[in-house]
């Protein structure tokens, strides 16, 4: 599991979990809050009705006929009230009135007149002078039939402290359930939107936290692989200190490794020519015959030139690798450079009986003309040295229509790359014997080409030809705005 995933999971566990808890608590408390609001309104309504009944009551005796005329007109009314998402068309309050003994003398529903309600909580508590309320299901097992009843005393005009009856108002919760469900849906949609925002913020937060680590990791891998890399710019003091520590570590490791590697390789490569020079010098000290004298002097000159080439190429490669040599940023045409390199290589190809063809389309980019010319010349020189007499070399330069790159491709008809050497072609001082002579080069040419490609943010690939024809293909790819 990546650190980015871990940060995201911890964030979602803490923030998302807290958000879910608050949302669930709000949803769970939605219905009780609506019922509390409804009960508060019912308490106002029942006391108004109790006062109205007291106003039409004489001699402390509640007249059912007067109650009938008082309430029936309200239940016969039809109206249309749009309450948020619910449309209301009739009064759905149930009103019943009892005498002082708790017997029903009026019921708006018309079904319990004459019944004894003295044991119902709303009636019994009200008659005792307490707050009377009850909640019940009108139909057993039917949640939608839940009704809340609130009662108030009907007091005597002569003695206000005495109750001569009870009026109770019942309100079905079905309409409230519709409002609660609509509110739940709105809260659920809001919760989904909020959850999506929390997830998006969490992803952005995890990316923001881990981006410095990702960039530093990519930088470290580029340094490990020898590819061009610049230290990324990162925000934050702690991250900046980590960035500086990476750079110091890279410099220290590269410096130590650089010295060790080049001392070992230079010692190994120069040991052979020095041994040849020493042997020739010892023979010359014995005054050999003139023909032998000239031969050994020639050997000394050849080996000295070889040492000089190794030192020169090694110094140039070291400068490129340490980025002390900077590519000149200029508008150039890789095709024009290719024509110059092909013209310079033509005599050597003709001398070996090799046909060299060039197909160069305009390939503009920004780069260093001298370095790119050296890279192309090295690729052509390798192809000439490994192509037998009568062979062919195809040199192609063109922009790639599918990418914003230009490429230079050199294909020969030589023996190809053996399997054991496929992964070592760019190793310093690694060289394959040339066909026919068996001679080897300094083994630094392809390393130079790779460093020049990296300096231009490009890549070089060398492999056997993919078309089934014996031979090697070397392809240099560069972005059009390379430097």
UniProtKB/TrEMBL annotation:
<dbReference type="Pfam" id="PF02518">
    <property type="entry name" value="HATPase_c"/>
</dbReference>
<feature type="transmembrane region" description="Helical">
    <location>
        <begin position="187"/>
        <end position="209"/>
    </location>
</feature>
<keyword id="KW-1133">Transmembrane helix</keyword>
<keyword id="KW-0902">Two-component regulatory system</keyword>
<dbReference type="InterPro" id="IPR005467">
    <property type="entry name" value="His_kinase_dom"/>
</dbReference>
<keyword id="KW-0597">Phosphoprotein</keyword>
<dbReference type="InterPro" id="IPR003594">
    <property type="entry name" value="HATPase_dom"/>
</dbReference>
<dbReference type="InterPro" id="IPR003660">
    <property type="entry name" value="HAMP_dom"/>
</dbReference>
<dbReference type="GO" id="GO:0000155">
    <property type="term" value="F:phosphorelay sensor kinase activity"/>
</dbReference>
<dbReference type="InterPro" id="IPR003661">
    <property type="entry name" value="HisK_dim/P_dom"/>
</dbReference>
<keyword id="KW-0418">Kinase</keyword>
<feature type="transmembrane region" description="Helical">
    <location>
        <begin position="6"/>
        <end position="23"/>
    </location>
</feature>
<dbReference type="InterPro" id="IPR050428">
    <property type="entry name" value="TCS_sensor_his_kinase"/>
</dbReference>
<dbReference type="InterPro" id="IPR004358">
    <property type="entry name" value="Sig_transdc_His_kin-like_C"/>
</dbReference>
<dbReference type="InterPro" id="IPR036890">
    <property type="entry name" value="HATPase_C_sf"/>
</dbReference>
<keyword id="KW-0812">Transmembrane</keyword>
<dbReference type="InterPro" id="IPR036097">
    <property type="entry name" value="HisK_dim/P_sf"/>
</dbReference>
<keyword id="KW-1003">Cell membrane</keyword>
<dbReference type="Pfam" id="PF00672">
    <property type="entry name" value="HAMP"/>
</dbReference>
<keyword id="KW-0472">Membrane</keyword>
<feature type="domain" description="HAMP">
    <location>
        <begin position="207"/>
        <end position="258"/>
    </location>
</feature>
<keyword id="KW-0808">Transferase</keyword>
<dbReference type="InterPro" id="IPR029151">
    <property type="entry name" value="Sensor-like_sf"/>
</dbReference>
<dbReference type="Pfam" id="PF00512">
    <property type="entry name" value="HisKA"/>
</dbReference>
<protein>
    <recommendedName>
        <fullName>histidine kinase</fullName>
        <ecNumber>2.7.13.3</ecNumber>
    </recommendedName>
</protein>
<feature type="domain" description="Histidine kinase">
    <location>
        <begin position="265"/>
        <end position="482"/>
    </location>
</feature>
<dbReference type="GO" id="GO:0005886">
    <property type="term" value="C:plasma membrane"/>
</dbReference>
